[in-house]
Amino acid sequence: MDYYTSVHQVDAARARLLLEASIQAYSAFDESKPEMCRRDKVTPPTGYTLVDSWTGVDAIFSEDRSTECYGLVFRSDATPSTYIFAFRGTDSPKELLEDLGLERKAFVPFESDVPVGDAEVESGFFDIYTETNRDPSMQSQLFALVDKYCKADEQMGDLLVTGHSLGAALSQLFTLDLALSRPQLTVASYNYACPRVGNSDFVALYEAQTPQRNPATRTLRVQNTYDVVPCNPVEAMGYLHTSPALLLAFYEDKLDVVGNHASAHYKAVLDCADGSPSGVCVESLHVDGITLTSIEPSTTDVCEPW
Questions:
Q1: Each residue of 14-49: pLDDT tens digit?
Q2: Residue 288 lies in a domain
Q3: Is the residue at 242 inside a domain?
Q4: Domain encompassing residue 81
Q5: Total domain count for the chain?
Q6: What 8-state DSSP symbol labels residue 97?
């Protein structure tokens, strides 16, 4: 596993932009009308316009597998061929952790005749990505949007994919699917607080399709070493992470499952790190009435700092 500990080792501006897009994907979700994407509640990242949204079937939290708003598309004002696909996740990870990793399914790309070997992924994530209800599946909606933009007057150039938590897992499924099903596209994917998504064959396939030597097509995970979600499902169940990862290390309470996972806290520490000469946030931060302690991350105890 390759780790970075300074935000200056990666594209910090892109990391902050895509985290903001991930946060805005939460804003579009309304619990009273979960199937509706509330675009009026969204503030696009600076320099971007909200142009589309998509839904998915909640196969993890909803017993009746309801249709819910799951993501937003932003288009660059300065470069209209650049798009951000931002997946909604969950800032409350407790329910997510209860059943995570109990079952795996074979990964099936949008173009189903593309060989994937023995790549398997966590079944709940894949069900959200592929199941249908009244609407087409999330997977079908996403590729319909991609194909629409590729045919537009200002054809798609760069595609940026992002998400936090559950949204990070879905963003990884979509990123690999794009690489297999639309290999002509240039895709970069930054995700935050991502759980482990698949088995070793999934990771090998993923990294073979998104070579890390090319920054234009790089996938980067951003992980708080005190966040329990990226440490699940556990490796003993056959799950692995993709590489590389930018490590942060922050907490209010080292055992606070929710606070150490919150997207707003990731944002505060990432902003702090980008403003530091070292690229590492080493200070106390006041966020939403609480005090976060941010320290230099260690690469030797990523999932067991507590």
A1: 999 999 999 999 999 998 898 899 999 999 999 999
A2: no
A3: yes
A4: 3-249
A5: 1
A6: H
Question: Before 233, cis peptide (omega within 30)?
Answer: yes
pLDDT single digits (tens) 126-180: 999 999 988 899 999 999 999 999 997 777 888 999 999 999 999 999 999 999 9
C-alpha atoms less than 13 angstroms from C-alpha of 290 in its C-beta half-sphere: 15
| 106: CATH | 3.40.50.1820
Classify residue 55: in a domain, yes or no.
Answer: yes
Cis ω before 244 (30° cut-off from 0): yes
Classify residue 237: in a domain, yes or no: yes
Q: Compute the distance between CA of residue 88 and CA of residue 138 in angstroms, rounded to an integer.
A: 12
Nearest to 88 by CA among 74, 72, 70: 70
pLDDT at 303: 83
Positive or negative torsion for Cα 8, 230, 30, 85: positive
C-alpha distances in angstroms, 41 versus 36, 44, 53, 88? 11, 10, 13, 14
Cα separation, 147 vs 282, in Å, equals 44
